[in-house]
Structures are given as C-alpha cells and as structure tokens.
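Handout, section B. The chain below has 140 residues.
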Amino acid sequence: MLLEGTMKIELLSRTSLETQKLDLMTDVSNLKLKLVGMEKEQAECEEKHQKAEGLLVELRTLKSKVDELENEKSQYEWKLKATKTEIAQLQEQLALKDAEIARLQRQISMRNSADLQSSETGELYRKSLRKKYQEVQRLK
C-alpha cells in the first residue's frame, strides 16, 4: 500500500506538473500573441512616425517657400512703388514739356502774325512810295 500511496502522490505530482506545464504553455502562447500585437502596434506607430516626419519635412519646405514668396512679394511691391514714383515724375516732366511746347507754339504764332503784319505794312508802304514816285514822275 505504501507503493500505491507513493504512486498516487507521484501521479498527482505529475498531473499537477502537467497542468502547470499546460498553464505555462498557455501563458507563453498568450504572451506570444501579445508580443505579435505589440510588434504590429509598434510597426504602425513607426509608420505613423515616418509619415509625421515626412509631413514635417514637407511643412518646412512649404514654410520656406512661403517665406521666399513673401520676400519676392516685398521686392515686387517695392519695385511697383518705385515704378509709380517714376511714372509720376515722368508725367510731371511730360506736363512741363507740353506747357513748353504750347508756349513755343504761341510764340511762333505771334511771330508769324507779326511777320505777316510787318510784311503787309511794308507792302503798303512800298505801294504808297510807288504812287508818290509815279506822281512825281508825272509832274515832271
């Protein structure tokens, strides 16, 4: 009976060890499943991180381009202001030249008028002198 008791104890021990072994194998399987899940989650996180890094690089590039465009805009605004100033100056000069042309045209017109009057007066004077000369010639 002692042998039988020892065998029962050993059987119970083995059964307990088998149960523990199965429990441990279940735990290992569960841990492996968790590990696979965590590895998948890590891969997804790394992918999201890489996408975020790519977006940051793109954002920096776009920010740089915006800065460039703002600088270019400032330069064009400055050039536009300078051009408007130059146009205003040229319009002023043009108005002065137009006024000078009008003044010169008036002077020419007045001279032509004076020359015409002078020539008409000279012609009348010559005619008058001819008449007197002819009268004097007749009287002789």
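Note. The chain has a mean pLDDT of 90. Compare this with the example in section A.
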